[in-house]
Structure formats: structure tokens, C-alpha cells
Design a protein that fits this description.
This protein has 105 residues and is an all-alpha fold. The chain has one domain. Helix content is 86%, strand content 0%. It has helices at 2-9, 11-21, 26-71, 80-104. Helix 1 (2-9) packs antiparallel against helix 3 (26-71) and helix 2 runs antiparallel to helix 3. The protein is elongated. The two termini are 28 Å apart.
């Protein structure tokens, strides 16, 4: 997640390089650079933050599972943390897709 966030954040460098490689009208080039910069920085930052949250959640789950194993009692399996993280990831993907869909229309 964090690496994907860095990739999205640096996407504007690829767009600028590609726009320099082909002949694009100056007003279209400025619009493309502006759109890629806005999309990349915000979305990339959110993916990085969600990746950090996933690392913290995985650490908490590991410590809790280790304590349950050492406890020697029977514990029920919980899935609430996985469900919440899946919902957060799905929401992030939907929110990140909205600017792409709007710009395609």
C-alpha cells in the first residue's frame, strides 16, 4: 500500500516526461500537469497513510493472537478489524477513482 501510494504520488513526473516526449499544445500540457499533480499528491498521501494504518493494525493483531496462543484458553475468532480495514480500503479506492471518472467524462 505504501509503495503504491509513492507510485501514485510520483505519477506527475511520468506525465510531465510523457508530455515533453510528444508534441502537445501548451494549454493542454498545463491542464494535464495541473490535473496529474492534484490527483497524485492527495491520493498518494491517502494510500501511504492507509498503508501505515494497516501496519499498525497487523501489529496489534499479531500481539493479540500471540497472547491468545500463549493463554491456552479457547478464544473465538474475530473478524471486525479485517472488515473495517477492507471497508476503509474499498472507500479509498472509490474516492481515488472519482477524479478519474469525472475527467474521462
Amino acid at each position: 500500500m505504501i509503495a503504491f501510494g509513492f507510485l501514485i504520488d510520483r505519477f506527475d513526473l511520468l506525465v510531465i516526461t510523457m508530455s515533453n516526449a510528444v508534441s502537445i499544445q501548451p494549454e493542454h500540457r498545463a491542464e494535464l500537469e495541473s490535473m496529474s499533480s492534484q490527483l497524485g499528491h492527495g491520493t498518494g498521501l491517502w494510500f501511504i497513510l492507509v498503508g501505515i494504518i494497516f501496519i499498525v493494525a497487523a501489529t496489534v493483531r499479531f500481539v493479540r493472537t500471540r497472547a491468545h496462543i500463549l493463554d491456552q484458553e479457547i478464544h473465538t475468532a474475530g473478524f471486525m478489524m479485517e472488515f473495517v480495514l477492507a471497508v476503509v480500503l474499498a472507500a479509498l479506492i472509490v474516492v481515488a477513482s472519482i477524479p478519474l471518472l469525472v475527467s474521462a467524462l
